[in-house]
Write a structure and sequence with these properties.
4-stranded parallel β-sheet; about 675 residues; mainly alpha; 4 domains; 8 strands; 28 helices; Fumarate Reductase Cytochrome B subunit; single chain; Fumarate Reductase Iron-sulfur Protein, Chain B, domain 2; Rossmann fold
Length: about 675
């Protein structure tokens, strides 16, 4: 006898199933159309090619749940539910092919191993996932999750669908004395339990009732999907497919200053269609919020709330019929985003550290949205913090963001025999010193140590000296794209006039701008961070440290070196060459490093002491028990130096750049 079963056993009027299916599909399709119509309100953006790379990403991040599984606990129950329903859906398709298309595939070993055993196992795992999710949400209650009635309905509905499915299967197995029932172990056990408490004469009516209840509940959830949080089942996959394939460090789009009619994003309709898809893709998991340093410091920024507030605004102000004036409402002056939907304090809390984007399982792009709204406020309204305004005025007038400084860009190298490029001729590297390194007394020591190391290794290098101007990073992150454009073009002209090919810098912000953002202005250079060059010189044997520093060292990963440019090992290699003891890692490190608080222009903003991101990171450093905190960024040097003094008191660890460590400055162990 060939293993199989009767599909619609004990069910009459099966044709009603198709009657119910038609409105289910129509309601579902209309819900999807409503969202599609909203996305189309956004500006055009090319996100469709290359197809192969996008499909691979879909397989890795949607089907493979790669980012979700970074969090083992949360990723576990989501994966169990996801794969459970994927397999159960495939099983439903097999039934439709077998019965409705009259292709008899549900028989033999395939029926036993897949349609019986596999579906039972994955159904049970799915139930386990739902139970873990209920425990996680309603007993553990993590702060990042919002409690809504939809969560209870969705989880309760999914659990009911799964349980009634096993009940229907179990009653059929027992009633028909299915010879293959042992291949459905969960259904068999459930059937025995039910028949032990349900009178025999009620078994068949109960089976029929549960079959229809199971079907109608499943149809109901499908129809409701586009109108509920379940929508992310579709939009998350779409968002992953249409994710940016550019380097994440080049996420900010230039503005064509000659043709732009407006600057930045003023209203919801001025975002791109992909930015609006982002809003619907949000799963409300709160991982971005947990990772956000501004939120941790008590500032009025939650990346999750920012996305949800924009989504709520989009649906409230634009959703509905496409009657005349509907699109106009989206761009109406009364619907300004900043001040109405998103508060100004929220925008100026972001350090652009990209921790939110690093954690988001569906690739939502929070930072570009914040910068786009800043662009409008800064360039069209001229409404932003006075300290930032002073920095930008100095940038425009003096080429650097430090209005009160009387130091020149070459004071740090007096007596060091450092070449100026204008007089040097061809060199191996241009050392781009950067404003914060050249003009800040503490960071000048980093420039001196790094230059001594290059001289010791026989590297032929030069600096631009007074011809060096700010790369424009602060202007761009604050929102003045016009000033960034002006500075970028001036610097590119200077660099190209000297035929510069290779640049090394001690500032990750300069690294990121020169390497990833200037190419969009037609200029490409080989740009290296000093940690990378020092690590290479160590490997080549051109630098030979003693490696005997008997102090405990930890390292702070700068956001613009780590998350933006994926450079984690080289700074550690430099420290390992110096230290006798293994590196002590802080509790948040590498791609999950905690921001120092200076990025996004916040270096030039006054903050109350109890709201400073730097204080939290300083506490992490002190808690590590290290004697020295290694850094590789001039902004981090300033922020952590101040924060650690406040937190550590007399026992505060020293804050040293990796170049100072290798050079021997301040550690008593010259290289």
């Amino acid at each position: 006898m060939t293993p199989t079963r009767e599909i619609y056993w004990n069910i009459t009027a099966v044709w009603l199933m198709y009657v119910f299916l038609i409105p289910t599909i129509l309601v579902f399709a209309y819900g999807i159309y409503r969202h599609y119509r909203l996305w189309r309100l956004g500006k055009p953006e090319k996100r469709s090619v290359p197809v192969a790379e996008r499909i691979i990403g879909l397989l890795i991040y949607a089907l493979g749940q790669a980012r979700l599984l970074r969090n083992i606990y949360g990723g576990l129950f989501h994966t169990l539910i996801f794969f459970g329903f994927v397999i159960l859906f495939i099983g439903t398709l097999v039934v439709a092919i077998h019965e409705d298309l009259d292709l008899r595939i549900m028989q033999g070993n395939f029926y036993l191993f897949f349609q019986s055993l596999t579906l039972d196992v994955f159904g049970l795992l799915c139930i386990l996932g739902v139970l873990i999710a209920l425990f996680h949400r309603y007993l553990l209650r993590p702060r990042r999750l919002n409690d809504t009635w939809q969560d209870a309905v969705i989880l309760g509905g999914l659990l009911t669908v799964l349980l009634t499915g096993f009940m229907v299967e179990g009653l059929r197995i027992i009633a028909t004395q299915d010879p293959w029932g042992a291949w459905s172990p969960v259904g068999l056990v459930v059937g025995k339990l039910l028949t032990s408490i349900v009178p025999t004469e009620l078994s068949l009516p109960l089976h029929a009732f549960l079959w229809w209840f199971h079907l109608l509940l499943a149809f109901g959830l499908i129809a409701w999907l586009p109108y509920s949080k379940l929508l992310h089942v579709l939009t998350a996959a779409l968002n992953i497919y249409f994710r940016s394939l550019e380097p994440k460090a080049a996420m900010l789009k230039p503005i064509d200053m000659g043709s732009a009619e407006s600057f930045g994003v003023k209203t919801i309709g001025q975002f791109t269609w992909k930015a609006l898809l982002d809003l619907d893709a949000c799963t409300e998991c709160g991982r971005c919020q947990d990772a956000c340093p501004a939120f941790a410091a008590g500032k009025p920024l939650s990346p999750k709330s920012l996305i949800l507030d924009l989504r709520e605004h989009l649906r409230e102000k634009v959703n509905g019929s496409r009657a005349p004036g509907a699109e106009k409402d989206a761009d109406d002056k009364n619907q300004l985003l900043v001040g109405n939907v998103i508060q100004e304090e929220t925008l100026w809390s972001c350090t652009t550290c990209m921790a939110c984007m690093q954690e988001c399982p569906v690739f939502i792009e929070h930072v570009p949205k914040i910068v786009d709204m800043r662009r409008y406020v800064v360039m069209e309204e001229s409404r932003f913090p006075e300290t930032m305004q002073r920095a930008l005025r100095s940038l425009e007038a003096r080429g650097h963001p430090y209005p009160g400084t009387v130091v020149s860009r070459t004071d740090w190298c007096k007596g060091m025999d450092i070449k100026i490029l204008a007089n040097a001729g061809p060199v191996d590297y241009l050392y781009w010193v950067g404003c914060t390194t050249a003009l800040h007394a503490r960071n000048q020591k980093t420039a001196q140590s790094f230059s001594r190391l290059l001289q010791r290794a026989g590297v032929n290098f030069a600096i631009l000296g007074d011809q060096e101007h700010c790369t424009g990073d602060p202007a761009r992150r604050i929102g003045n794209e016009y000033l960034f454009d002006k500075l970028a073009r001036r610097n590119i002209k200077t660099l190209q006039s000297y035929k510069v090919k290779r640049i090394v810098t001690t500032c990750p912000h300069c690294l990121n701008t020169l390497k990833n953002e200037y190419p969009k202005f037609g200029a490409e250079f080989e740009v290296t961070h000093h940690s990378q060059l020092l690590a290479e010189l160590l490997k080549q044997g051109r630098l030979k440290p003693s490696g005997g520093l008997e102090k405990k060292i930890t390292f702070h990963d700068p956001c613009y070196l780590g998350r933006y440019n994926d450079t984690y090992e080289e700074p550690r290699e430099v420290i390992s060459a110096v230290a006798k003891e293994p590196l002590t890692e802080m509790r948040q490190n590498r791609e999950r490093s905690f921001c120092c608080g200076a990025g996004g222009g916040l270096m030039w903003i006054e903050e109350p002491n109890d709201k400073r991101v730097s204080n939290i990171r300083a506490e992490h450093a002190v808690q590590s028990g290290a004697d020295i905190v290694g850094v590789a960024c001039p902004f981090c040097m300033i922020m952590l130096g101040d924060g650690i003094k406040n937190k550590g008191g007399e026992q505060a660890p020293d804050v040293l750049d990796i170049a100072e460590l290798l050079d021997g400055t301040g550690n008593g162990k010259p290289a």
